[in-house]
Write a structure and sequence with these properties.
The protein has 246 residues and is mostly helical. Helix content is 83%, strand content 0%. It has ten helices and no strands. The longest helix has 26 residues. It is globular. The two termini are 32 Å apart.
């Protein structure tokens, strides 16, 4: 029960962050799980299994609110699912302790990206994003291998190109459901999904956090929250890296 409560807390914090700024659920949860000693493949599998529920609910809400560009959705979802399946299959074949510091380095870089995105100014809106299929593929690939990164990579890139924010965030959220579902199925057939205390805790924490995250999105400045998240992810990743090399 103590373990479940720990993962409820992790899921709650991760969903609060994701619900408030539209990204970083996987980055936050995976960073914390790695720092507590969970192997990379197990951490990614558990996070994506839990995310299947949270992204499904979030994506459906965006669909009902008219925030989804159908053409953009499938241009992201199909290559993203393919990349996610390849990434999950590749990760399942690596020794956990060997790969952990490199995953932590990847997450550290994502933390830096989040901080950078919080500080740079966005360009004027442009209705036609470029290189969407490659972006979806590599977003899904790195998301599976690193346990997170779909939002920071894909959403940030689309916003950086000037895509209308509501369509970028809504389409990426719904596409993420298909990506996380594919990743979870791949992990199920490779390493299995046996650590249900982690998965259950993350789901419960995310469900509890959802309404509070909506309030945070309305009242907490996104820039300030992104800076905090970036710093936390960098700190956790540095801790994992130092432990791995000492």
């Amino acid at each position: 029960m103590d373990e479940v409560l720990l993962y409820v807390a992790i899921g709650f914090v991760a969903q609060m962050i994701d619900g408030a700024i539209g990204m970083a659920y996987g980055v936050t949860a995976t960073s914390v799980l790695l720092s507590t000693g969970v192997p990379p493949a197990t951490a990614s599998a558990c996070v994506h299994a839990a995310e299947t529920f949270t992204t499904g609910a979030s994506g459906l809400a965006h669909w009902k609110l008219g925030n989804v560009d159908r053409k953009l959705l499938w241009r992201l979802a199909v290559p993203g699912a393919i990349g996610g399946a390849i990434g999950a299959y590749a990760l399942s074949g690596f020794e956990g302790e060997t790969l952990k510091p490199y995953i932590a380095i990847y997450l550290l870089l994502l933390g830096i990206v989040i901080i950078w995105k919080a500080l740079v100014r966005r360009p004027l809106e442009s209705p036609q994003p470029r290189s969407v299929a490659p972006l979806g593929f590599f977003g899904g690939l790195l998301d599976a291998i690193g346990g997170g990164g779909w939002g920071p990579i894909v959403t940030s890139s689309l916003l950086g190109q000037g895509t209308t924010p509501r369509y970028a965030i809504g389409s990426v959220n719904l596409a993420e459901f298909f990506v996380t579902l594919t990743i979870s199925i791949t992990f199920f057939f490779t390493i299995g999904l046996g650590l249900w205390p982690i998965i259950t805790g993350l789901i419960i924490g995310g469900v509890i956090a959802a309404p509070f995250a909506a309030l945070a999105a309305k009242h907490v400045p996104a820039k300030a929250l992104m800076l905090v998240v970036g710093c936390v992810v960098i700190g956790l990743s540095l801790n994992t890296i130092i432990k791995a090399f000492t």
